[in-house]
Amino acid sequence: MNKFIDDLIHLKVYLVGRCTKCNHYNESMVHDYGRLTHLQLEDEMDRTNHSIRPISCNKCGTEYKPQQFLYRDVVRNSEVAKVNIDYSNIIDAEKSAAMQEGHDDRFKIYQSREQEFWAAYTEYALENWKSAVGELMRQEIEVGFSALGKKTTFKSDLHARREALQKIDASDRRSFWIAANQEFIVGELLDLGVLGWVPIEFAKRYGAARTRFGIMYFPVAEALEDLRTKYIGLLFKRERGDNAFLLRRIGQLTDAAQKQTMQLNKLLRQADEQKHTIAGLQDKLGVANAKLEQEASHQPITERSKDDIRRIRELKSFIGELIAEIRHLRPEEADEVPETPELVEANAELPEISESDVSVLTGKTVAIIGGHRNRKGSGGYPCDIIAHDGRKHAPDFYSTLQRADVIVVLTRFISHASMWEAKAFAAQNDKPIWFIQEINIGSILNIVAQEGR
Ligand SMILES: [Zn+2]
């Protein structure tokens, strides 16, 4: 029995973890069970599911994924358990469909591996005959005897076990064991299927040792292996002594499968941290760019002092370093950017082009980043239009920027990464750059021509 059985416990549950930006440790309470007895608490825990949500940093305000659940007993001011959060446990639809399929196929799967399983299971029982029989119930033993052609009735489990140990010849043990275990193996493990298994209840009814064997070795579909692993974790958790029942409930999150997923969690956190590092560098890059633009607009080029020229050179090289650092940190694949739109070509019926004087663009090349063109060279523009979707920073992305006299970035359809690449390129190469929402080429040229004067 539990020695704390009459004591009250007041459990509070927190999401905790270090901030991915500033590394500050934060706690956020998600549940308060109130003052309860252990038994009440166990009941409550059975009924309660804690959801995982981002927590925000008290120090820097960043929202990030918590690393652990913390269970704290307020009465004793002690930590009952800290449980790592398994983000891979959030089962996707595909996986749950595969699990259901495995469940539906369980009779076929069992049939195909039935003999192997029973061979191993009887082997285990024969090697541990006394303790194996010690877990059988009276009815099971009667079924076993009747399979050997012997009609029996026993007064109790104990009586039945004693008789079985004394009266079953070694040569009959195999058949006896198989018959006696039909209820557990076929009636429970097979009929319920992994999705319906109740390992703790099995262990109470059928005994810990054969429950463990059954749970570990019963043939199941591949898609259900994770769940099996979880059950094994539950069974082993149970053996920890007094507070086992608490740990068992909490342990529903702490199975062996977690070990494999720690790596994934680490990667998720690293990705978060990188995002923050990149954001920080982009902030710096923004400041550098703003300064550079300020410098450039302050004075006509002819009057730039040697000092200004040196500072501009320094800033450009600073931008170069920042952008290199950002590229280095950025994950391989592009950001979640939607399909780029097809640019709307100017059209004789829609005389946008004639509304303002776009002749200032004559002979120039305008690169539009964040869109694509269906046709080439149509529309009778005074300038060359080249388009790039900006999704991958392949050489043609840079060569598009290189060829441009004027760079236009369609801010709605381009990732931050691409925007910064374009902005940095423009700053380093003294090319004018525009950030525009339109996708109509005529309108784009109007804006560039009007504001560029
Ligand atoms: Zn923080």
Q: Which labels suit this protein?
A:
single chain, 453 residues, alpha/beta, 4 domains, four-stranded antiparallel beta sheet, four-stranded parallel beta sheet, 18 helices, 13% strand, elongated, disordered N terminus, binds zinc ion
Largest sheet, spatial ordering of strands? 2-1-5-6
Structural class: alpha/beta
The biggest beta sheet reads: 4 strands, antiparallel
Total discrete domains: 4
Number of helices: 18
Helix content: 40-55%
Each distinct ligand: zinc ion
Q: Please provide the ordered H/E string of secondary-structure elements.
A: EEHEEEEHHHHHHHHHHHHHHEEHEHEH
**Globular, elongated, flat, extended or rod-shaped: what is the shape?**
elongated
Oligomeric grouping of the chains: single chain
Radius of gyration: 35 Å
Low-confidence regions: 1-5, 240-245, 252-260, 348-353
N- and C-termini, Cα separation: 87 Å
